[in-house]
Design goal:
By secondary structure, the chain is an alpha/beta fold. The protein has one domain. It has six helices and six strands. Strands 4-5-3-6 form a four-stranded parallel beta sheet. The protein has a two-stranded antiparallel sheet with strand order 1-2. Helix 4 links the parallel strand 4 and strand 5. Helix 3 packs parallel to helix 4. The longest helix is centred in the N-terminal third of the chain and has 22 residues. It is globular and about 40 Å long. 30% of the residues are buried. The N terminus is likely disordered.
Length: 220
């Protein structure tokens, strides 16, 4: 795995937390506890479901890019910013690599959202393959909405930090451990040896032993 792809794993987790904090600012919401055995995403509704806070342009002192934020004065960082901050070599662009991203439900607006993200950040067109049915689930369910946000974050930042990598989004039709594991195995069957990226709205203490055993049984 090259340096850029190692970095992408860390950035996906850190930036997902930062973006989710921004999305929930000004609205009181609590993340649902993890299901047993499924995992839940935080209850974050996209802008199409909740009113966006007033935009306030904030200073990018100390690095970053000015962005539309809120009263908390959030600074935005672009993929280009991250390249500079972490001194990522230009050649570390993910060429020849495949990143499998596993999420539940997916997001019906992913392709248009990704196109906008790429346009704003000057990124090339992605190599994106979607396995499974994208955009399933009740759009009014906060848990499904949370997965929609997570799907966008995962795909956009994988492409942002490894713009020449092949991105494969494997979608589970539900967010229980069995379906998520099946989505991993299905993708690995088509792309053996690929990098696998997963993130859940729960810390390690809530991961059941059965889920780990199931992954091991599937040689993940």
């Amino acid at each position: 795995m090259n340096n850029r792809l190692r970095l992408s794993h860390t950035l996906l987790a850190v930036l997902a937390l930062a973006a989710l904090a921004l999305a929930t600012a000004g609205a009181a919401s609590s993340a649902p506890g993890p299901k047993d055995p499924p995992f839940s995403k935080p209850s974050v509704a996209p802008s199409s479901y909740v009113a966006a806070p007033p935009v306030t342009w904030v200073s990018a002192a100390g690095g970053g890019t000015p962005c539309g934020g809120n009263a908390f004065g959030v600074i935005c960082y672009t993929p280009s910013d991250m390249d500079k901050i972490y001194d990522v070599p230009a050649a570390a662009n993910g060429a020849g690599q495949t990143i499998i991203i596993v999420d539940a439900f997916g997001n019906p607006t992913l392709k248009s959202d990704l196109a906008q993200f790429d346009f704003e950040n000057g990124l090339p067109d992605p190599s994106l393959t979607i396995l499974g049915n994208n955009g399933t689930g009740n759009p009014n369910d906060p848990n499904v909405q949370g997965w929609q946000v997570e799907t966008n974050l995962d795909v956009e930042w994988a492409h942002g930090m490894a713009p020449k990598a092949n991105i494969v989004l494997s979608i589970a039709h539900n967010d229980n451990a069995h379906d998520l594991t099946d989505a991993v195995q299905h993708a690995l069957g088509k792309y053996p040896g690929a990098i696998v990226s997963q993130s859940f709205g729960a810390d390690e203490t809530f991961v059941k032993r059965g889920f780990i055993d199931d992954l091991s049984a599937h040689r993940v």
